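tmp note - Histidinol dehydrogenase
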Amino acid sequence: AKVAGVKKIVVVSPPCKDGTISPERLVACKESYVDEIYKIGGVHAIAALTFGTETIPKVDKIVGPGNIFVTLAKREAFGYVGIDILAGPSEVLIITDDTANYAYVASDLLSQAEHAPGVSILVTCSEELANKVINETSSQLSKLPRGNLIKESLDKFGVIIITRDLDEAIDISNTLAPEHLQVVVKNEEEVLPKIKHAGAIFTGSFTPVAVGDYVAGPSHVLPTGGTARFFSGLSVNDFLKRTSVITYSEDVLRSAAKDIITIAEAEGLEAHAQSVRIRVDK
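out:
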């Protein structure tokens, strides 16, 4: 937002039990040049930003993900303010062949499920790798502090799809348009040009989604639930607007007048046509 030239940035964040905001969030706000921070969250925070209160200013645009209630509140607010996207549960789809490290793949599926709920999908052309991932997932799961929540998430939203080949895996990925897409195959350069829809693409064995979560650079506010087919992740472009400046000379208007009048009359908008005639019929 600052790079785009936004002059004032306001952050709303629910406070901790002791009424403070965590120091990690405060540091993040400082590093992002945030101007004001308000200790409020949830639906009422969206309402306050949308319409303004005695203490919280009305804003022009609200961005950032939240729970289902925040998402629905943003939907209701749209039109009164601008929004970015309606983000749903986080998701990952991993495309692999038989060269992938099954332990790494298992850890990536688990890390997404840790959102509870989180959607974890493995699409592979290797049945052998799929079986190894299943066994490894169970092994790693037993060592995680949020294991019960992760297991519940995997039971509801976890799936492994075995395909005939990588092209079929790519077709499935493009149909689902995942928020996070990991491509862990022998020849990534052959797969990437065929990817049409994904919020963010992570390539190679040493690029887990966690690097995008925290330090890689691109925004981690990404389209979910298949909306990557028509939305992109939050970026500088979301804080820029476009406008047009049109100037016609008398000669240019005369040359276009007939077409303008014809179209206006076809729409039954006689005053539109007359606004051109009055300038050229003299």
